[in-house]
Design brief:
globular, 2 strands, single chain, two-stranded antiparallel sheet, 10 helices, 1% strand
């Protein structure tokens, strides 16, 4: 009996040692788990905050403000794609061939979002409809449009976290990307919830649908994080894939909506401010 008790005591001591090493070792994923969860959830908080604008604003966003917000979101996403995704993807390689994963992933990201855009019935914030004909309501189509936007953003955060965890768990760069996306999600949340309200939905319904559209970001980010962490060699491709998907949203939807009609310069100014802000965040926090 004393021998069994001794073995159990040794086992308990070893267990405590293992747990301590997992939670105090800076190279352990458990040591950065709060930071990882924070990075995954910050973009969702931006969407929730933006959707809450429906409680304090009129039923429609002024055209000038909408153009400025769309331009701002475009600038943030372009800067995030370049500084936080494409450049790290290239830096993971060596020599002239380092550009190959970045190019392949970028083009695949564009192709993936092009396919999703083609097969999914949705309506842009400007009111233009795309995708196959469907009996879905306008509210459902608006929600699908936001989901198409948010999924690549969640992917970007997830793969950035994976890249950070493979570099001695320096999570600051991934947090910078997450904060940048959250900032551009604020106007995006408002741009979605306000048209829902204008379409006849109640303020609370418009807010909840707008906020719920952001749930796909932490979910997509977590899934991509798990996949990227399990396949280390695919990380450069996944970084550039996320960049391509985000750039597709900018080129296909955000910039055209920001530049159509009068006062297109407002969207251009918003783009410049958004790009500069994200560049600063990446350099200062990264």
């Amino acid at each position: 009996m004393s021998e069994i008790i001794g073995k159990n005591s040794i086992f308990a001591d070893n267990k405590r040692i293992i747990i301590h090493s997992l939670t105090h070792n800076p190279h352990s994923p458990f040591a950065t788990m709060p930071s990882i969860l924070l990075a995954l959830l910050i973009p969702l908080l931006g969407t929730v905050l933006g959707s809450a604008f429906v409680f304090v604003m009129r039923k429609e966003i002024p055209a000038l403000l909408q153009k400025a917000l769309l331009g701002f979101a475009s600038g943030v996403m372009v800067a995030a794609s370049v500084w936080s995704l494409l450049i790290p993807s290239i830096e993971m390689g060596s020599g002239k061939m380092a550009i190959v994963p970045a190019v392949i992933g970028l083009l695949l990201g564009f192709a993936f979002l092009l396919l999703i855009d083609y097969i999914t019935p949705h309506i842009h914030a400007s009111g233009s409809a795309e995708g196959p004909k469907s009996g879905l309501s306008k509210t459902a189509k608006l929600t699908l449009a936001v989901t198409i936007h948010n999924f690549p953003e969640g992917m970007a955060v997830g793969v950035a976290i994976a890249g950070a965890t493979l570099s001695d768990f320096n999570i600051a760069g991934a947090l910078a990307l997450s904060i940048g996306i959250a900032i551009q999600n604020i106007p995006e949340g408002a741009i979605i919830s306000m048209p829902l309200r204008a379409a006849g939905n109640s303020k609370w319904r418009s807010f909840l649908i707008g906020a719920a559209s952001g749930i796909v970001e932490p979910i997509g980010g977590a899934l991509v994080l798990l996949l990227a962490s399990g396949i280390t060699g695919m990380l450069p491709y996944m970084l550039s894939f996320a960049a391509g998907a985000m750039l597709y949203v900018v080129v296909e939807e955000l910039i055209p909506d920001a530049s159509q009609g009068k006062h297109s310069n407002i969207g251009t100014i918003g783009f410049a401010i958004g790009f500069a802000l994200m560049m600063v965040l990446d350099v200062v926090l990264g």
